[in-house]
Design goal:
CATH topology of the largest domain: Rossmann fold
Number of helices: 12
Number of domains: 2
Largest sheet: 8 strands, mixed
Order of helices and strands: HEEHEHEHEHEHHEHEHEEHHEEH
Strand content: 5-15%
Number of strands: 12
CATH architecture of the largest domain: 3-Layer(aba) Sandwich
Structural class: alpha/beta
């Protein structure tokens, strides 16, 4: 197991907010971008020729735009999918894309995909853990794990650990963990993460999984920094995509979204109009920035939104920007990493 280096401990001061311990790197760096910035604007002038990326969920919504932008900048992109036919249709016009089969709820398929990638002896420069599910009814995988935790966090945890040798070979790699402002809904419940004893609440489950995504980036960065592997968590913004497929029309109305013919979405006011909703082009901007910006060369383990590093916020206002302390808590992140190793049955080796 890789250990936290003395240099890493010395470089970051630790502070306490209530009972949460965090690193003081969680501060804006004035990126000169903002909520309306698009992924194309972020990638302008960036040459990714010779770079390899893996994007989960890269055949719809934000993932598809992310793949398009990375490919346009010269990267070779691998898109693992649980629906190969759908992926083939969506990706057919994008060059330098390879499709593979993988289901985040199926540990064997994750192992098979990672093994195949490692057998190719390729270096992996960018891993974007983009796929996810939101607010479904209670479902469990074959191990009994709650589906949102299993898909959004544990599947991606297994994938990242399995691909770690390829990330290290890149000698300068980045992992992007797709979190959400929904992390504000729930801390991670270490006593009952799979809702075996407490009543299932689909939004608490989603919030817990998004907190887990942010905590994953904290420890992945501390484990990988000395080998050139940096990790970031991202809130992309509110974007009507296939992620809303488990929501009823009544649910959508709460978020100011309508559903029309052929399941098309009609969001409320956009960020360009002073509203909440982003386009997919805007929604992909922060993850692309975290994956490619030289301004982040000496950063990592931080939560980002609106194409900048977010500040820590203690407010109880769920609409306020910023990351809540529990989602960047060092001790919780280490505890979650150990729990995830146990639940998934994989371990990061030095």
């Amino acid at each position: 197991m890789l250990k936290l280096s003395v240099n890493l401990i010395g470089r970051f001061k630790r502070r306490m907010i209530g009972r949460h311990t965090y690193r003081t790197a969680q501060n804006s760096i004035s990126s000169e971008y903002g909520p309306t910035t698009t992924a194309q604007e972020v990638i302008a002038g960036c040459d990714l020729s010779g770079k390899a990326a893996v994007v989960t969920g890269g055949y719809s919504g934000l993932g598809l735009e992310t793949v398009r932008i990375l490919s346009k900048a010269g990267a070779f992109v691998v898109v693992p999918s649980r629906n190969p036919a759908k992926a083939k249709r969506a990706l057919s016009s994008i060059p330098q894309v390879e499709q593979a089969v993988m289901d985040l709820l199926d540990p064997a398929s994750i192992h098979a995909f990672a093994h195949s990638f490692l057998e190719s002896h390729r270096r992996l420069h960018i891993l974007i853990n983009n796929a996810g599910i939101m607010a479904p009814p209670l479902m469990r995988d074959s191990r009994g794990y709650e589906s949102q935790l299993a898909t959004n966090h544990l599947g991606h945890f297994q994938l990242a650990v399995a691909l770690w040798p390829a990330l290290r070979r890149a000698q300068g790699a980045r992992i992007i963990s797709m979190s959400s402002r929904a992390h504000r809904r729930a801390l991670f419940d270490f006593e009952d993460p799979n809702f075996e004893r407490r009543p299932y609440d689909r939004w608490v489950g989603y919030g817990q999984s998004k907190t887990a995504n942010a905590l994953f980036a904290v420890t992945a960065d501390s484990r990988g920094k000395d080998a050139g592997v940096r990790a970031f968590s991202v809130h992309p913004g509110m974007i009507p995509t296939d992620l809303t497929r488990h929501l009823s029309n009544e649910d959508l109305e709460i978020f100011g979204i309508g559903r029309g013919a052929e399941n098309s979405m009609f969001p409320g006011r956009s960020v360009d109009e002073g509203g909440l909703f982003k386009t997919v082009e805007q929604g992909a901007a922060t993850s692309i920035w975290c994956a490619t910006s030289p301004k982040l060369d000496n950063q990592g383990g931080v939560y980002c939104e609106d194409v900048d590093i977010a500040g820590i916020s203690e407010t109880t206002d769920p609409s306020a920007p910023g990351v809540r302390p529990w989602a960047v808590d060092v001790e919780a992140a280490e505890r979650l990493w150990s729990l995830s190793e146990m639940l998934v049955g994989v371990r990061l080796e030095p």
